[in-house]
Amino acid sequence: MPASPKESVRNPRVHDQRELGGSISPIEKPSLRGRFAPSPSGPLHFGSLVAAVGSYLVARYYGAEWQVRIEDIDPPREVEGATDTILRQLEAFGLHWDGPIIYQSENIPRFKDILEWLKAEGLLYACDCTRKKVNQLSDNGRYPNICQHKKLSFEGEVAWKLRHGDGDYSFFDQIQGNCTFDESLYREDFTVKRKDGLMAYQLAVVIDDIDAGIDHVVRGIDLLDSTPRQLRLYEVLEKPAPLWFHLPLAINNDGNKLSKQNHAPAIEAKNASVLLHQAIAFLGQKPPVSLRSEPPEIIIDWAIEHFQLETIPQQQQILYSES
Ligand code: GLU
Q: Kind of enzyme, top EC level (predicted)?
Protein backbone atom coordinates (compact mmCIF):
# COMPACT_ATOMS: atom_id res chain seq x y z
CA MET A 1 0.00 0.00 0.00
CA PRO A 2 1.51 3.31 -0.99
CA ALA A 3 1.88 5.58 2.01
CA SER A 4 -0.47 8.51 1.70
CA PRO A 5 1.41 11.78 2.04
CA LYS A 6 -1.31 12.77 4.46
CA GLU A 7 -0.19 10.11 6.90
CA SER A 8 2.82 12.25 7.62
CA VAL A 9 0.75 15.26 8.47
CA ARG A 10 1.12 15.70 12.17
CA ASN A 11 1.30 18.73 14.30
CA PRO A 12 3.50 18.54 17.34
CA ARG A 13 2.23 21.99 18.31
CA VAL A 14 -1.02 20.41 19.38
CA HIS A 15 0.82 17.74 21.37
CA ASP A 16 3.44 18.10 23.99
CA GLN A 17 6.35 18.88 21.66
CA ARG A 18 8.57 16.42 23.44
CA GLU A 19 6.11 13.73 22.34
CA LEU A 20 7.04 14.35 18.71
CA GLY A 21 9.02 11.16 18.38
CA GLY A 22 6.13 9.14 19.73
CA SER A 23 3.82 10.37 17.01
CA ILE A 24 6.04 9.32 14.12
CA SER A 25 5.55 5.85 12.89
CA PRO A 26 7.29 3.53 12.32
CA ILE A 27 10.50 5.25 13.45
CA GLU A 28 10.92 5.18 17.19
CA LYS A 29 12.06 8.27 19.00
CA PRO A 30 15.64 7.13 19.74
CA SER A 31 16.35 6.87 16.04
CA LEU A 32 14.97 10.29 15.21
CA ARG A 33 17.41 11.90 12.83
CA GLY A 34 17.58 15.25 11.10
CA ARG A 35 20.10 16.59 8.64
CA PHE A 36 21.76 19.57 7.04
CA ALA A 37 22.37 19.00 3.34
CA PRO A 38 24.49 21.73 1.74
CA SER A 39 25.55 21.65 -1.90
CA PRO A 40 29.30 22.31 -2.24
CA SER A 41 28.78 25.28 -4.53
CA GLY A 42 30.57 27.71 -2.20
CA PRO A 43 31.20 28.48 1.46
CA LEU A 44 28.33 28.90 3.92
CA HIS A 45 26.85 32.41 4.15
CA PHE A 46 24.37 33.80 6.68
CA GLY A 47 21.39 32.26 4.82
CA SER A 48 22.87 28.77 4.93
CA LEU A 49 23.93 29.31 8.54
CA VAL A 50 20.25 29.85 9.39
CA ALA A 51 19.39 26.48 7.79
CA ALA A 52 22.29 24.78 9.58
CA VAL A 53 21.40 26.28 12.97
CA GLY A 54 17.65 25.70 12.49
CA SER A 55 18.10 22.04 11.61
CA TYR A 56 20.60 21.58 14.44
CA LEU A 57 18.32 23.13 17.07
CA VAL A 58 15.25 21.15 15.99
CA ALA A 59 17.24 17.89 16.04
CA ARG A 60 18.86 18.55 19.39
CA TYR A 61 15.69 19.86 20.99
CA TYR A 62 13.93 16.60 20.19
CA GLY A 63 16.95 14.55 21.23
CA ALA A 64 17.61 13.48 17.64
CA GLU A 65 20.81 12.92 15.73
CA TRP A 66 22.01 15.54 13.28
CA GLN A 67 23.61 14.32 10.09
CA VAL A 68 25.56 16.32 7.55
CA ARG A 69 25.16 15.32 3.93
CA ILE A 70 27.14 16.93 1.15
CA GLU A 71 24.94 17.09 -1.94
CA ASP A 72 27.71 16.76 -4.50
CA ILE A 73 25.89 15.40 -7.52
CA ASP A 74 25.99 18.51 -9.69
CA PRO A 75 29.66 18.89 -10.70
CA PRO A 76 29.06 21.94 -12.95
CA ARG A 77 27.90 23.89 -9.86
CA GLU A 78 30.62 22.67 -7.54
CA VAL A 79 33.43 24.88 -6.30
CA GLU A 80 36.72 23.24 -5.52
CA GLY A 81 37.45 23.07 -1.82
CA ALA A 82 33.90 24.09 -0.83
CA THR A 83 33.14 20.84 1.00
CA ASP A 84 36.15 21.25 3.22
CA THR A 85 35.35 24.90 3.88
CA ILE A 86 31.75 24.06 4.82
CA LEU A 87 32.81 21.36 7.28
CA ARG A 88 35.40 23.66 8.90
CA GLN A 89 32.77 26.41 9.15
CA LEU A 90 30.31 24.06 10.88
CA GLU A 91 32.97 23.02 13.38
CA ALA A 92 33.98 26.61 14.09
CA PHE A 93 30.33 27.48 14.75
CA GLY A 94 29.92 24.65 17.27
CA LEU A 95 27.64 22.62 14.99
CA HIS A 96 28.93 19.10 15.60
CA TRP A 97 27.41 16.33 13.52
CA ASP A 98 26.69 12.71 14.38
CA GLY A 99 28.09 9.78 12.45
CA PRO A 100 30.03 9.96 9.22
CA ILE A 101 29.57 12.71 6.66
CA ILE A 102 27.40 11.41 3.83
CA TYR A 103 28.55 12.19 0.31
CA GLN A 104 25.59 12.02 -2.01
CA SER A 105 27.78 11.20 -5.01
CA GLU A 106 28.62 7.84 -3.42
CA ASN A 107 24.97 6.85 -3.73
CA ILE A 108 24.67 7.37 -7.47
CA PRO A 109 24.57 3.59 -8.16
CA ARG A 110 21.65 3.38 -5.72
CA PHE A 111 19.81 6.23 -7.48
CA LYS A 112 20.36 4.42 -10.78
CA ASP A 113 18.91 1.18 -9.39
CA ILE A 114 15.83 3.01 -8.19
CA LEU A 115 15.44 4.74 -11.56
CA GLU A 116 15.52 1.33 -13.24
CA TRP A 117 12.91 0.07 -10.81
CA LEU A 118 10.66 3.08 -11.43
CA LYS A 119 11.12 2.56 -15.17
CA ALA A 120 10.21 -1.13 -14.91
CA GLU A 121 7.07 -0.14 -12.98
CA GLY A 122 6.02 2.06 -15.91
CA LEU A 123 6.26 5.20 -13.79
CA LEU A 124 8.77 7.00 -16.02
CA TYR A 125 8.96 8.26 -19.55
CA ALA A 126 11.61 9.98 -21.60
CA CYS A 127 11.32 13.60 -22.66
CA ASP A 128 13.44 15.49 -25.19
CA CYS A 129 11.85 18.93 -24.77
CA THR A 130 14.01 21.99 -24.40
CA ARG A 131 13.36 24.57 -21.68
CA LYS A 132 12.50 27.03 -24.48
CA LYS A 133 9.80 24.74 -25.81
CA VAL A 134 8.36 24.19 -22.32
CA ASN A 135 8.22 27.94 -21.74
CA GLN A 136 6.47 28.46 -25.08
CA LEU A 137 3.79 25.91 -24.27
CA SER A 138 3.19 26.77 -20.65
CA ASP A 139 2.26 30.05 -19.03
CA ASN A 140 3.50 29.20 -15.55
CA GLY A 141 6.82 27.54 -16.44
CA ARG A 142 5.47 24.13 -15.46
CA TYR A 143 6.09 21.20 -17.73
CA PRO A 144 2.81 20.39 -19.49
CA ASN A 145 3.59 16.66 -19.67
CA ILE A 146 4.21 16.99 -23.40
CA CYS A 147 6.02 13.70 -23.96
CA GLN A 148 3.92 11.47 -21.71
CA HIS A 149 2.43 9.41 -24.57
CA LYS A 150 5.32 9.61 -27.03
CA LYS A 151 7.18 6.49 -25.86
CA LEU A 152 10.56 8.03 -26.62
CA SER A 153 13.65 5.93 -26.03
CA PHE A 154 15.34 6.34 -22.64
CA GLU A 155 18.72 6.39 -24.39
CA GLY A 156 20.61 9.53 -25.33
CA GLU A 157 20.03 13.12 -24.31
CA VAL A 158 16.60 12.85 -22.75
CA ALA A 159 15.26 13.71 -19.33
CA TRP A 160 13.45 11.01 -17.37
CA LYS A 161 10.11 12.21 -16.02
CA LEU A 162 8.12 10.68 -13.19
CA ARG A 163 4.43 10.42 -13.96
CA HIS A 164 2.40 12.57 -11.58
CA GLY A 165 0.03 11.05 -9.06
CA ASP A 166 -3.66 11.63 -8.47
CA GLY A 167 -3.29 12.51 -4.82
CA ASP A 168 -3.41 15.69 -2.86
CA TYR A 169 0.18 16.63 -2.12
CA SER A 170 -0.61 19.46 0.24
CA PHE A 171 0.99 19.01 3.62
CA PHE A 172 1.26 20.39 7.08
CA ASP A 173 4.47 22.23 7.76
CA GLN A 174 5.55 22.40 11.39
CA ILE A 175 6.44 26.07 11.03
CA GLN A 176 4.39 27.40 8.13
CA GLY A 177 1.19 25.47 8.83
CA ASN A 178 -0.99 24.10 6.00
CA CYS A 179 0.72 24.32 2.63
CA THR A 180 -1.38 23.91 -0.49
CA PHE A 181 -0.33 24.56 -4.05
CA ASP A 182 -1.80 25.06 -7.44
CA GLU A 183 -3.20 21.88 -8.97
CA SER A 184 -0.73 22.37 -11.85
CA LEU A 185 2.12 21.60 -9.45
CA TYR A 186 0.51 18.37 -8.24
CA ARG A 187 -0.16 17.23 -11.82
CA GLU A 188 3.21 18.08 -13.30
CA ASP A 189 5.41 15.17 -14.34
CA PHE A 190 8.81 16.15 -13.02
CA THR A 191 12.40 15.26 -13.83
CA VAL A 192 14.13 12.51 -11.88
CA LYS A 193 17.08 12.16 -14.23
CA ARG A 194 18.34 15.20 -16.06
CA LYS A 195 18.94 15.53 -19.77
CA ASP A 196 22.67 15.90 -19.11
CA GLY A 197 22.60 12.47 -17.41
CA LEU A 198 22.92 13.83 -13.86
CA MET A 199 20.59 12.72 -11.09
CA ALA A 200 17.86 15.23 -10.29
CA TYR A 201 17.83 16.84 -6.84
CA GLN A 202 14.27 15.62 -6.08
CA LEU A 203 15.16 11.97 -6.54
CA ALA A 204 18.50 12.05 -4.74
CA VAL A 205 17.24 13.98 -1.74
CA VAL A 206 14.32 11.63 -1.12
CA ILE A 207 16.29 8.42 -1.51
CA ASP A 208 19.06 9.68 0.74
CA ASP A 209 16.61 10.87 3.38
CA ILE A 210 14.84 7.50 3.33
CA ASP A 211 18.08 5.51 3.47
CA ALA A 212 19.42 7.59 6.34
CA GLY A 213 16.21 7.28 8.38
CA ILE A 214 15.63 11.03 8.30
CA ASP A 215 12.27 11.64 9.94
CA HIS A 216 12.26 15.43 9.97
CA VAL A 217 13.50 17.82 7.32
CA VAL A 218 14.39 21.38 8.30
CA ARG A 219 15.40 23.66 5.42
CA GLY A 220 14.78 27.00 3.75
CA ILE A 221 11.35 27.94 2.47
CA ASP A 222 12.78 28.25 -1.05
CA LEU A 223 12.34 24.46 -1.19
CA LEU A 224 8.69 24.57 -0.11
CA ASP A 225 7.31 23.83 -3.56
CA SER A 226 9.71 20.93 -4.01
CA THR A 227 7.92 19.22 -1.14
CA PRO A 228 4.80 18.08 -3.09
CA ARG A 229 7.13 16.47 -5.65
CA GLN A 230 9.06 14.79 -2.91
CA LEU A 231 5.78 13.56 -1.40
CA ARG A 232 4.98 11.99 -4.76
CA LEU A 233 8.31 10.14 -4.57
CA TYR A 234 7.60 8.94 -1.02
CA GLU A 235 4.28 7.72 -2.36
CA VAL A 236 5.71 5.69 -5.25
CA LEU A 237 8.51 4.35 -3.04
CA GLU A 238 5.90 3.42 -0.43
CA LYS A 239 7.73 5.08 2.44
CA PRO A 240 6.39 7.39 5.14
CA ALA A 241 7.30 11.03 4.58
CA PRO A 242 9.21 12.99 7.22
CA LEU A 243 7.90 15.95 9.15
CA TRP A 244 8.61 19.22 7.35
CA PHE A 245 9.94 22.43 8.86
CA HIS A 246 10.48 25.25 6.35
CA LEU A 247 12.44 28.21 7.70
CA PRO A 248 12.10 31.83 6.55
CA LEU A 249 14.70 33.02 4.08
CA ALA A 250 17.23 35.75 4.72
CA ILE A 251 17.05 38.43 2.04
CA ASN A 252 19.32 41.39 1.35
CA ASN A 253 18.41 45.07 0.91
CA ASP A 254 17.62 44.47 -2.78
CA GLY A 255 15.02 41.88 -1.83
CA ASN A 256 17.11 38.97 -3.11
CA LYS A 257 17.70 35.79 -1.19
CA LEU A 258 21.20 35.60 0.28
CA SER A 259 22.83 32.99 -1.89
CA LYS A 260 26.11 31.85 -3.25
CA GLN A 261 24.95 33.00 -6.70
CA ASN A 262 24.47 36.59 -5.58
CA HIS A 263 27.74 36.58 -3.65
CA ALA A 264 26.51 36.62 -0.09
CA PRO A 265 29.66 36.92 2.03
CA ALA A 266 31.03 33.74 3.56
CA ILE A 267 30.60 33.45 7.33
CA GLU A 268 33.92 33.76 9.11
CA ALA A 269 35.04 31.85 12.18
CA LYS A 270 36.30 35.02 13.84
CA ASN A 271 32.71 36.34 13.90
CA ALA A 272 31.18 33.02 14.93
CA SER A 273 29.58 34.20 18.18
CA VAL A 274 27.98 37.31 16.74
CA LEU A 275 26.72 35.48 13.64
CA LEU A 276 25.33 32.60 15.68
CA HIS A 277 23.58 35.06 17.95
CA GLN A 278 22.08 36.74 14.87
CA ALA A 279 21.02 33.41 13.33
CA ILE A 280 19.31 32.32 16.54
CA ALA A 281 17.53 35.69 16.82
CA PHE A 282 16.57 35.44 13.12
CA LEU A 283 14.84 32.19 14.04
CA GLY A 284 12.63 34.06 16.50
CA GLN A 285 14.49 33.02 19.63
CA LYS A 286 15.45 35.62 22.21
CA PRO A 287 19.10 35.15 23.11
CA PRO A 288 20.31 37.63 25.76
CA VAL A 289 22.77 40.22 24.42
CA SER A 290 25.40 39.04 26.91
CA LEU A 291 25.62 35.74 24.99
CA ARG A 292 27.22 37.50 22.03
CA SER A 293 30.61 37.39 23.68
CA GLU A 294 30.40 33.72 24.68
CA PRO A 295 32.01 30.88 22.70
CA PRO A 296 29.81 29.21 20.04
CA GLU A 297 29.16 26.05 22.09
CA ILE A 298 27.74 28.08 24.98
CA ILE A 299 25.45 30.01 22.62
CA ILE A 300 24.23 26.80 21.01
CA ASP A 301 23.60 25.18 24.39
CA TRP A 302 21.53 28.18 25.46
CA ALA A 303 19.56 27.98 22.21
CA ILE A 304 18.80 24.28 22.62
CA GLU A 305 17.70 24.73 26.19
CA HIS A 306 15.43 27.71 25.39
CA PHE A 307 14.27 26.55 21.96
CA GLN A 308 10.69 27.45 21.03
CA LEU A 309 9.30 26.16 17.78
CA GLU A 310 6.28 28.48 18.05
CA THR A 311 8.34 31.65 17.84
CA ILE A 312 10.06 30.83 14.52
CA PRO A 313 8.48 33.40 12.19
CA GLN A 314 5.78 32.12 9.86
CA GLN A 315 7.22 34.33 7.20
CA GLN A 316 8.64 33.70 3.77
CA GLN A 317 11.42 36.26 3.94
CA ILE A 318 13.17 38.38 6.52
CA LEU A 319 15.57 41.18 5.76
CA TYR A 320 19.06 40.51 7.03
CA SER A 321 21.38 43.46 7.42
CA GLU A 322 24.83 42.66 8.70
CA SER A 323 25.04 45.34 11.37
N1 GLU B 1 21.19 20.78 -1.14
C2 GLU B 1 20.10 21.70 -1.04
C3 GLU B 1 20.62 23.12 -0.97
O4 GLU B 1 21.78 23.34 -0.69
C5 GLU B 1 19.25 21.45 0.21
C6 GLU B 1 18.44 20.23 0.09
C7 GLU B 1 17.40 20.02 1.17
O8 GLU B 1 17.58 20.48 2.31
O9 GLU B 1 16.41 19.36 0.88
O10 GLU B 1 19.85 24.02 -1.23
A: ligase
